[in-house]
């Protein structure tokens, strides 16, 4: 299942690629800034997959850079709504179909572990994810469900437009051991590892996937 918020066309393009490779896929839209967004998404997922979900990758997120004295209550709440409330209730609502061998992967961030950029409110949402990973892993472990997160550094996506500037590239490469800009596939492979049986003895951990940032 390919979830989208606003960008149905991109989700449908991914569905098309999966189908072209012989797989089955469906695009599912739900706005996770809506308080009932995760509930709606989970209900739709359960309609489609039935009684078992093998892998949940909770990756949707928003960021907004702001210095401390300019962070607004609205921005703070919007960040926590999508980045923390949504994955929390998504797992809650999917509990009945997470079974022995299922794997949940959340998306944390380098920002939760190091003071990078003017991202304190965003960073706090990712710190919350690191905390949820431990609690959910402990709660779901007896059912045989693993819960982990990946913590990317700077990745070239729509979210990190600053990294496409010369100053942003210099800042990013300056803090990384590996001297190139990360691409989404660099992160996706780590998610695939955590979701797979190769990571069968890994639970409750946040894996840094950041090219050795801020060592
Ligand atoms: N880029 C980085 O440098 C970086 C670094 C560390 C961690 N991360 C984390 O990595 C994850 C993916 O970010 P990205 O870099 O790929 O950012 P992105 O290009 O801005 O993509 C954000 C994704 O989240 C979805 N989303 C945002 N708001 C939503 C909402 N209200 N309802 C439903 N879906 C919503 C978007 O769906 P639609 O487009 O369909 O609305 C999109 O798929 C996020 O959790 C982010 O915090 C990113």
Shape: globular
CATH fold-level topology: Rossmann fold
User: What is the CATH C-level name?
Assistant: Alpha Beta
What name goes with the CATH superfamily? NAD(P)-binding Rossmann-like Domain
Most strands sheet: 4 strands, parallel
Low-confidence stretches: none
| Neighbour order of strands in the largest sheet | 3-4-5-6
Note the beta-strand portion. 5-15%
Alpha-beta classification: alpha/beta
Bound small molecules, by name, code or SMILES, are: NADP nicotinamide-adenine-dinucleotide phosphate
Approximate helicity band = 40-55%
SSE arrangement:
Elements: E1 2-4, H1 8-20, E2 27-29, H2 37-49, E3 55-58, H3 73-94, E4 103-107, H4 120-140, E5 146-152, H5 166-175, H6 184-195, E6 206-209
Parallel strand pairs: 1-2, 3-4, 4-5, 5-6
Helix pairs in contact: 2-3, 3-4
The structure holds NADP nicotinamide-adenine-dinucleotide phosphate.
NADP nicotinamide-adenine-dinucleotide phosphate binds at residues 4-7, 31-33, 59-63, 82, 107, 109, 152, 154-155, 157-160.
What does this 3D model show about the protein?
By secondary structure, the chain is α/β, with parallel strands linked by helices. The chain has one domain: 3-Layer(aba) Sandwich (Rossmann fold). The chain contains six helices and six strands. It has a four-stranded parallel sheet, with helices on both faces. A two-stranded parallel sheet has the order 1-2. Helix 2 (37-49) runs parallel beside helix 3 and helix 3 packs parallel to helix 4. The longest helix is centred in the middle third of the chain and has 22 residues, at 73-94. NADP nicotinamide-adenine-dinucleotide phosphate (NAP) is lined by residues 4-7, 31-33, 59-63, 82, 107, 109, 152, 154-155, 157-160. NADP nicotinamide-adenine-dinucleotide phosphate (NAP) binds at residues 4-7, 31-33, 59-63, 82, 107, 109, 152, 154-155, 157-160.
